[in-house]
Please model this.
Amino acid sequence: MNKQEIISILNEFPYSRDEYWIITGSAMVLYGIREQTHDIDMGCTSKLADQLQADGYSYALTESGNRKFEIGDNIEVFENWIRGTIDVVDSFPVISIKGLVEMKHEIGRDKDKKDIALIKEYMSNKIELVDNILEPEDFVRLRVLTGFYNIPVEHARKALQNGLINVSVLLDGELIGMGRLVGDGAMYWYLQEIVVLPEYQGMGIGTMIVNHLVDYAKKNSATGEFTTIGGVSAKGKEGFYKKLGFKVIPNGIMKIIEMGGE
Model:
């Protein structure tokens, strides 16, 4: 079924939208990530599960002990199956993109892995990287939301002014991530505040930020044969930088770029 067919069925669903949310393939269709799905999967509260049971719908128990209902030929309802948060799409509650990715990882079938690739492609097409528009207030806000300590806005303003470049990640105009490059602008470059809001992590956005800043350093390096890019990795994030070709060193991370190649 396509998006319009899903909406038509949901409009006839006689239960409160406060008590359920759309998940898996049907969520992907509502977001526009896929064109079709076989049926409509929902998560629901225990309150709605109790109501479905009282209304005579049969159920089976999942491995977690929650109830799973089949309603007609098109709808399956899973009690308390949720990852991430809930967004609203075309007036219907839908699992967030991050939650959708986590759910697909949890199910783990080959088709779920393909769906994850589709979701990441969808995100990359909607994301815009824009240089040097980051406002000090937003810089501070994203730092705090991603676990960095708070700093005065005026300190942030000066830091942004003295940096070489900053990049903002926009999703439908909303700031969801950022990164900075500082250094001498010729030989040595340092990555700073590579951050993505928690609900959008795990979707390849951090990689986009780092690659964007590395490309900037390569294009503007004055060393001739190679240039050095360093930084400090947040604890537990070393593997992220290793995948991008950085070496973990005692006081941070480092990558030597050969000009004309890597």
About this structure: The chain has two domains: 3-107, 128-258. The two ends are 46 Å apart (CA to CA). The first strand starts at residue 20 and ends at 23. The chain has a mean pLDDT of 92.
